[in-house]
Amino acid sequence: MFNTSIHWTTFFYLLIDTVIVLFTLYQSKKKKRSGLNRFLYLGLLFVAYNFTGGFLPIDNFPGPIILQYIITYGVAIIL
Known about the structure:
Elements: H1 8-28, H2 34-55, H3 65-78
């Protein structure tokens, strides 16, 4: 899909998770609680993890292939 190694189920999960994070971001504007902020950080990390895991490594990325793996595994470790 998209000439990358992303599977269609990963892309579908990425879309659903993005919608959930955007909805939570909209709801968090009304309330100021630290629990919502932690959920937003975790949700954004899940989106970044699925995005980097699905779209990297690609051939036309500037820089060496090891940099792509560093980015992918770095996001996974942070999560």
